[in-house]
Amino acid sequence: MKQLNVGILGATGAVGREMMKILAERNFPVASLRPLASARNAGKKLPFKGEDLTIVEASDDAFSGLDIVLGAAENDIAKRFAPAIKKSGAVFIDNSSAFRLDPDVPLIVPEINPEDAKLHKGIISNPNCTTIITLIAVYALAKESPIETIVASSYQAVSGAGAAGPVELEEEVAAHIRGESYEPKVFAHQIAYNIIPQIGGEAYKGYTSEEMKMQNEGRKILHLPEMKVSCTCARVPVIRSHSVSVLLRTKEKISVQHAKELIASAKGCKLVDDLPNLIYPMPLDTSDQDLVYVGRIREDLTDDRGLNLWCCGDQVRKGAATNAVQIAELLC
Q1: What is the mean pLDDT of residues 183-212?
Q2: Alpha-carbon span 121 to 172, nearest angstrom
Q3: Could you give the C-alpha distances from 11 to 95, 122, 163, 279, in angstroms and in order?
């Protein structure tokens, strides 16, 4: 397999560091790895396969000679450097939401629509983490019969807000135990012993930007332009791994038993469904690995063609870094 020169834009962040870890884990054919970050981090070192790599300041000239750039930076940074990355001849696999709904940019979950990656024009987008986890869980059902509607509620871990999220949760818990007050910095409200039912700003008729991603990105990935999604996203005091409650309605009825068989054999899924023995997907069990666990599969009591399920997945790995590396593997 051809060895490739790889860059990581935003290498010092949680997702960027995870990308480096997963490139090594999956033995990606890296000829050279160039970590890119802001000027304040330039010159610092990051470990990769027993070496210490020097961080390079991100600039228009910093992408020369690269074959692939994995993006782990915010939207403004992705938009700022996308033209320079394309000009360098590298393919930009971007984890931000900057280009996800651009009709000229493929939006890829390799277990679902790998063939769309071939349509790229220099940029490929990585979907939202909650979208990835949910679609991995339901894709086998969508292949059996098109999904018409999804009603979802997500329970999103604090690490989804970046490396500072778990720190704030732990510091709030410690302050509470000491009987001290703590002023939130990362989240709008105290997250310890609390649930915050807002992620992102208002985007459409009272729905937040995070909530609308499930519908808009899901339609594009599944090639179901008429699929309707109603979603509520909440931040919960969990360190890692997002959970999603999903009620879906398919065009044709799928029995619970058949749904379990389909999910059990689906790529990227693990059926974890034994309610009498207290076995179901949980964040603690799904952290630091790449499968989406699916369970609590049952008929909906309001619609004959409805199914309920519960899924969990590591949003830093499969929801971001691993998915991006898998896209890069498609290009190999």
Answers
A1: 97
A2: 46
A3: 12, 20, 13, 37
Q: Which residues contact 303 (CB under 8 A, 6 or more apart)?
A: 249
Residue 229, Cβ neighbours under 10 Å: how many? Answer: 23
Number of residues that this document lists for the chain: 332
Average pLDDT, the chain: 97
DSSP 271-307: E--BGGGTB---HHHHTTS-PEEEEEEEE-SS-TTEE
The answer on pLDDT for 1 being more than 80 is no
Alpha carbon distance 307, 295 (integer Å): 11
CATH topology of domain 4-127+320-331: Rossmann fold (3.40.50)
Tell me which CATH code domain 131-315 carries.
Answer: 3.30.360.10
* Annotated catalytic residue 176: no
Residue pair 133/319 in contact by the 8 Å Cβ criterion: yes
Active site residue 189: no
Intervals of CATH 3.40.50.720 along the chain? 4-127+320-331
The pair of three-digit structure tokens given for residue 325, joined into one six-digit string? 């590396």
Residue among 120, 231, 233, 242 flagged as catalytic: 242
The separation between the first and the last C-alpha atoms of the chain, rounded to the nearest angstrom, is 7
* Phi-psi domain of 268 (left: phi exceeds 0; alpha: psi -120 through 50; beta: other): left
Q: What is the pLDDT of residue 332?
A: 87
Phi, psi of 116, deg, nearest 5: -65, -20
Burial 55-73 (b: 16+ CB within 10 A, else e): bbebeeebbeebbbbbbbb
Residues 139, 112: contact at Cβ < 8 Å?
yes
Q: Which amino acid is at 162?
A: G
Q: Catalytic: which of 120, 129, 311, 312?
A: 129
For residue 51, give the H/E element and its range. Answer: strand 51-54
Which ranges in the chain are annotated with CATH 3.30.360.10? Answer: 131-315
pLDDT tens digits along 28-54: 999 999 999 999 999 999 999 999 999
